[in-house]
Design a protein that fits this description.
Chain A: This is Raffinose/stachyose/melibiose transport system permease protein. The complex is a heterodimer of chains A (304) and B (427). Chain A contains 15 helices and 2 strands. Chain A has a single domain (57-303), classed as MetI-like (MetI-like fold), CATH 1.10.3720. Chain A is mostly helical and 304 residues long. Chain A has a two-stranded antiparallel sheet with strand order 1-2. Chain B is of the alpha+beta class. Chain B folds into 2 domains: 35-155 and 315-356, Periplasmic binding protein-like II (D-Maltodextrin-Binding Protein, domain 2, 3-Layer(aba) Sandwich); 159-311 and 389-424, D-Maltodextrin-Binding Protein, domain 2, CATH 3.40.190.10. Chain B has helices at residues 2-29, 47-62, 75-86, 101-109, 117-123, 125-128, 131-134, 166-171, 180-192, 205-216, 221-229, 239-254, 266-274, 288-294, 327-338, 340-348, 364-378, 393-405, 410-424, and strands at residues 35-40, 67-72, 94-97, 138-139, 149-150, 153-154, 156-165, 280-284, 299-302, 312-314, 317-319, 352-353. In chain B, the strands form 3 sheets. Chain B has a 5-stranded mixed β-sheet. In chain B, helix 2 (47-62) links the parallel strand 1 and strand 2 (67-72). The chains are: A mainly alpha (304), B alpha+beta (427). The A-B interface holds A 46-49, 133, 136-139, 157-163, 166, 246-252, 263-264, 266-270 and B 80, 83-84, 86-87, 102, 106-107, 110, 112, 202-203, 258-264, 268, 272, 277, 391-392, 394-395, 398-400, 402-403, 405-406, 408, 424.
């Protein structure tokens, strides 16, 4: 009786040497700095000299800080722009490319189109951001020039400078940048869907829309979960896009927690406060991740 | 156990190797003063870049056997990481650093910079630099500028002025203004012809510098000192600030400044002026060399019309980190940059030298630039920059001025500025 048990445990421990480097690296690069960040968040510190312990002071200030709450509200819209909308568009595009384009125009056309949509993902975020800031520029920007050219010149304005449009413009850019990721994941997910399912549905007279709803979406649910989790976390961490496009402006209209934390760290030399924001943001991301993983696990259980 | 023992040994060996490597690094820096580690962030083709390149050559010629290890850094890079770098073993022997309470002042308070006072008096640098320019080089124990301890040496100075596109003035039959009334009359004339008179950038310093200049038009030295050096209480709802914010908002409404410039950066605004789209740019002398090189039209510069005080100060500082291991070499290098030759190079390349011999400046526009600056220092007219007094103020100014341009009431905007200012004052 003891032998198989011992054998299993030896087998389990046998993996340890392979896990160790990753574990050490994680501890050194993520674990320790995160704990230090939490520690710093209980202090008042300029980044140099001795930090002064102030307990929950920074957190009490956070609760009252209107700018902090506004930055979280902006982030909700950014989740919409970086996670929800690209996932939906990605789903439709993936289904259309796999189910329609691939079948009628051949796989080559489908992959060319896929590569075109994926392109923004390859571009460094900062470069894409700079290019978009040119496109959206109030004078000589391509977007305004285009509006002028089609006779809608009255709509032309300072997209990133008007608080009414700044956040929406940033969200628009993010949608453009983000679509390629869900598309590629969904298309590869669709590869493993048995074509006979589609054929059977087609024989039964199901339209493209019904096939999408009843075959495509249910079949790639695991991919949808992964994409939503991944893009939501990316949206919560959104920083370079904001940094390049608006620096949180105009007048804080596009401020997000990650940028706000950076401003406190480096512009205001208020490292303790910046750490408190970063800690809250990390906890929100961790909580969301746990909720997503739970939901996914439950979904898989039900699916079985 | 044996395995664990072996890994522990490997780890220990690695740690020992790492320690000895850092120790070597430390030794290298101090090996008998054979190396001068120098950091600065001026572009090679800028006036300062040219002057300091020459100074490095001169230093190498006068210090045979000493190697200058120069690292070109970015302005932002040094601004954001200096405290951490200076607190480490990697600090250079001499570096360029931003002036002001929130930067050089903060580092001096934290004991990261060398007190240069004895060297400054010994080498006579204090005689070369006018008292007005000295303010940003000297700090008190709290790190407030204008103290009595030298923590840096400025080689150059800078100030804001109006750049005029003379061709556009001539073409639209408008006279270049010399008084404030003439300035507004000229702007009215341009607006009437469909030309936006002033180039502007709402996402960076240009917009709030207008607000400060307009406030300065109604202010005096005591007001500036109270704001910049905390010698008194600053009330942002006083007459001067209210005039500044209200007038600026009014200028946006009147079309003197494009409302569409809220999201623009300083580079956009400068390029737009240099490409001949705007008759005027109100910005720093740091643009001078570029305008000279790039503008395809006839242009000239002058101090803000009618101003007794304007934005300006000594330039960025040479500082010697506390941890520098070759301080004598650092002082020798600073000394070379203060000499007539480096100062003349700086002046002829479009910079504002602090200790130049006027006869050595040959370019006519550069002569005017320096003469205007000398006029300002003689009349105690340098009022520094609005974002200096507290850390993080720059972002607050940008955000609030953007709101002002987008129609938020001046009182509300100034209230926001007051909140950041009060929250950031040294305790």
């Amino acid at each position: 009786m003891t032998t198989p048990g011992r054998g299993r445990s030896r087998e389990q421990w046998g993996y340890l040497p392979y896990l160790l480097p990753g574990l050490l690296l994680f501890t050194a690069v993520i674990g320790v700095p995160f704990l230090m960040n939490i520690g710093t968040s209980f202090t008042e510190w300029t980044g140099v000299g001795a930090p002064e312990w102030i307990g929950l002071g920074n957190y009490r200030e956070l609760v009252r800080d209107g700018e902090f709450w506004a930055s979280f509200r902006h982030n909700v819209l950014i989740i919409f722009g970086m996670a929800i909308v690209p996932t939906m568009i990605g789903l439709v595009l993936a289904a259309a490319l796999t189910d329609l384009v691939d079948r009628h125009f051949g796989p080559r056309t489908a992959s060319v189109l896929r590569a075109c949509v994926y392109l923004p993902q390859v571009l460094p975020v900062v470069i894409a951001g700079v290019v978009w800031s040119w496109l959206l520029a109030p004078e000589n920007g391509a977007v305004n020039a285009l509006l002028d050219a089609v006779g809608l010149g009255s709509l032309a304005h300072d997209w990133l400078g008007d608080p009414a449009t700044a956040l929406w413009s940033v969200v628009g850019v993010m949608v453009w940048m983000q679509i390629g990721f869900p598309l590629v994941i969904f298309m590869s997910g669709l590869q493993r869907v048995d074509p006979s399912l589609y054929e059977a549905a087609e024989i039964d007279g199901a339209s493209w829309g019904r096939r999408f709803r009843h075959v495509t979406v249910p079949q790639i649910r695991p991919e949808i979960f992964v994409v939503l989790l991944w893009t939501t976390i990316a949206a919560l961490k959104a920083f370079p896009q904001i940094f390049v496009l608006t620096k949180g402006g105009p007048g804080g209209a596009t401020n997000v927690p990650s940028y706000y934390s950076w401003v406190n760290f480096f512009e205001k030399s208020d490292v303790g406060y910046g750490s408190a924001i970063a800690t809250v943001l990390t906890l929100v991301i961790l909580a969301l991740t746990v909720v997503f993983l739970r939901l996914q696990a439950r979904d898989l259980e039900e699916g079985r | 156990m044996i395995k664990a023992g072996r890994s522990a040994a490997v780890l220990a060996a690695l740690a020992a190797a790492a320690l000895s490597l850092t120790a070597c690094g430390g030794d290298d820096g101090g090996s008998g003063g054979k190396e001068l580690k120098l950091w600065h962030y001026e572009a090679p083709d800028s006036a300062m870049g040219k002057a300091w390149d020459e100074a490095i050559k001169e230093f190498e010629a006068t210090h045979p056997g000493v190697k200058v290890t120069f690292e070109e850094k970015g302005f932002e890079q040094i601004q954001k990481t200096a405290p951490m770098v200076l607190n480490s073993k990697d600090a250079p022997d001499v570096m360029e650093y931003n002036k002001g309470n929130a930067t050089a002042g903060m580092l001096s308070r934290q004991g990261l910079l060398t007190d240069l006072t004895p060297e400054v008096t010994k080498r006579g640098w204090d005689k070369l630099i006018s008292p007005n320019v000295q303010v940003t080089a000297k700090y008190d124990a709290k790190g407030t500028m204008g103290g009595d301890t030298w923590y840096g040496v400025p080689d150059y100075a800078e100030y804001l002025q109006v750049y005029y596109n003379k061709d556009l003035f001539e073409k639209n039959d408008v006279k270049i203004p010399t008084t404030f009334a003439e300035l507004t009359a000229a702007m009215d004339a341009f607006v009437a012809k469909g030309v936006t008179p002033l180039t502007n950038a709402g996402a960076e310093y240009m917009a709030h510098q207008f607000v400060y200049q307009l406030a300065l038009d109604k202010a005096d030295r005591a007001w500036v000192d109270a704001f910049q050096r905390y010698t008194g209480k600053t009330n942002f709802n006083d007459a001067a600030w209210t005039y500044g914010a209200t007038t600026f908002a009014d200028w946006v409404k009147k079309g003197y400044i494009a409302k569409k410039s809220v999201s623009l950066k300083a580079e956009d605004a400068g390029v737009a002026f240099m490409s001949g789209k705007f008759p005027m740019m109100f910005s720093g002398s740091w643009w001078f060399g570029r305008v000279a090189a790039e503008a395809k039209f006839d242009w000239e510069t002058a101090v803000w019309p009618g101003a007794k005080m304007t934005l300006g100060s000594g330039g960025n500082l040479w500082v010697v980190p506390k941890g520098s291991e070759n301080k004598q070499l650092a002082y020798d290098f600073i000394d070379i940059t203060m000499k007539k030759q480096a100062q003349a190079t700086l002046g002829n390349a479009g910079g504002v030298p602090v200790a130049a011999d006027p006869s050595a400046i040959t370019d006519a526009k550069a002569k005017k630039l320096i003469a205007d600056f000398d006029g300002l220092t003689r009349s105690d007219g340098l009022a520094y920059y609005p974002d200096w007094p507290v850390a993080g103020f720059y972002d607050a100014w940008v955000a609030q001025t953007q709101k002002l341009m987008n129609g938020t009431a001046p009182g509300e905007v100034l209230g926001g500025i007051q909140k950041t200012y009060d929250g950031g004052l040294p305790k």
